[in-house]
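User: I'm curious what two different proteins look like when written out as structure tokens. Can you demonstrate?

Assistant: Sure. I'll show them one after the other, since each token string lines up with its own sequence. Here's the first protein:
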Amino acid sequence: MSFLTLANQYQSFDFKTYFNSIRPEDVQKTLDRGAGGLKRLETRDLLTLLSPAAEDFLEPMAQTARELTCRHFGQIISLYAPLYISDYCSNHCTYCGFNALTAFPRTRLTMEEINREARAIADTGIRHILVLTGEAPAKTPLSYLEAACRVMARYFSSIALEIFPMTQSDYQVLHRAGADSLTVYQEVYDQAVYKEVHPKGPKADYAFRLLTPERGAAAGFRAVNIGTLFGLGNPKAEAFMAGIHARYLEQAFPHVEISLSLPRMTRAGGAIAPKHLLPDKGFVQTMLAWRLFMPRLGITVSTRESAAFRDRIIHLGATRYSAGSRTDVGGYAVHTTDTTAQFEVTDTRTVAEVADMIRNNGYQPVFKDWEIF
């Protein structure tokens, strides 16, 4: 069975009615079961922790989340940076600045330019990189991506891919070239909304994208990071689906590190506005619920979030922050002209400034915790 089977079972589930049926005593029972992380919470517990009734229990949830995070990860925050190497895309995603219908000069970095970008990022101390492209296999074929990975392996101890979904055999090629991790967001688990916001292009194939993390894990990647883009579907329902997706992957691939991200829609050129806002309180509740549901889960918070907000939530379960991010192609050193950003960065601090913030909060910034051999 793949996760698609489980996802299909929830397409007709009445999340609103179920969430509204949760009572405060139900939340307390879940918290009692999850106290100390001694008992494994079930899917109904995740629903309970994401319910409106749980909004009045954020303080005890936060205390447990902090305890569990420190127990399993220590007081550390791992740092990484994104590196965009191409913005060519054949998809018509209505929320993305790289939408094929958005008119701007497209860019694909050469290997020499990738080398310059990688060197500039490595000079900041970053050793974990996230490589991103649009979905245009004709412009960024497997051979191009393989060569890019070999260039970046000179500078980084960990190379994560956030590129278009590929086959297991193609991922194995990139794994041999130095990539060790995979990031892929379903964007939205609600199939009706998915169809609406992906009207055309390869990304319109819901099932192929949904099963991408499984192909990546089977290909040998040591870590897989997934998530939903908050702003497209119902936030609580999407948080639940992402949570059970992570739990499924954790059980199916126990040797793989599973992480979840909480990206919220920010401004992007030519993109739609969010239809479902996830307020800060909802963001915190989601992060806490995920931590209690999966104590060993990695949780990533990107520079989509403001500096002030990231400072405040550092104690609540996050394990990884991006820093010094640029979301346009060649944004670190090449500085190509007329490029567009995939989305707007909100926390614009340098890597050094983010590292100082982490230290000032009693945590240790980690630039490297993995080595490619």
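Here's a second, unrelated protein for contrast:
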Amino acid sequence: MKQIRGAIIRAGLDALYFSGAHRVLRPIFGGVGTIFMLHHVRPAHAGVFQPNRHLEITPDFLRATLAYIRASDIDIVTPDEVQRRLAEQDFSRRFACFTCDDGYRDNRDFALPAMQDFDAPFSVYVASDFADGGGRLWWIALERVVAKADIIEAPIDGHSVRLDTSTAVGKEMAFDRLHAWLRGLPGDQDIRREMTALCAAHGIDEDAISRELCMSWDELKPFAADPLVTIGAHSVSHGNLAKQPEAVALHELATSRARIEATLQRPAVHLAYPYGDRCAAGSREFALAQKAGFQTAVTTRPGVIFADNSEQLTALPRVSLNGNFQDARYLPVLTSGAATAMYNGFRRGAA
């Protein structure tokens, strides 16, 4: 279960911190900078069942992170500056780059004020369908289905399965099983079909979720005009590019860039791959991002930035600011590279 995995990760972070091993490992695994990955930034809300909690941090924790970075004399830079430093091999100073995926409205309402307090630039990667108000944030729809239901029936792996979701533990187990099943389906159209059926069966309006949570194009225009904000692309539909035919995947990338540039009247040359793990972004997708004209592209593969990442700027790793581990003492561990090195078997974890 996710709780067990989270406990193991927390134990590893604590071991690195309390032993001081992160200080020893930093010269080896610290690299030249860190690209931080965020999603939601918003005040914590009550509720035992929050399976997507890892995708959100509080404004207070973001401010604590920014304060730590500033106190550590680390430059907070834009994706353009990351690209420049890597291309020119300019590593005279360490850097941090803050990135937010999906285009949530709370990035404007809560992240931007925090970044302004520290005069810190950040980037937001926008999925075009979410900005249109017609995208499908299926992981959030799934959370709402499970939260509402006491029993869920689903055709998992070709068998009709009945899941008891009447208790908190049952809900956590059901969400994990359904999430894994959906991510493992052959294509995005299969996820859409099954989620539409689940939402219809349990009275969840999945069409309204992107309008509720994500900035529209009209909202993005003044947001993008802020000098601290860079808007990047996150594909059109937030689909798994690796499961799409090459022509479709290239269309997702090129069209997302074109729509942002046409609507916001500013370059969109930085990309975040949807999902971004090894199952969703590999060598083909890295090459397609270059073909679509992106200068950088970030994955969700854990790792800090090393000088040799300049050899493949469309395959950059990131360090997640995970909502399950909002503790300021973990910040020196995360920026030391020790945590991601441990996760990667004490390899640099290059894509």
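A detail about the second structure: The radius of gyration is 20 Å.
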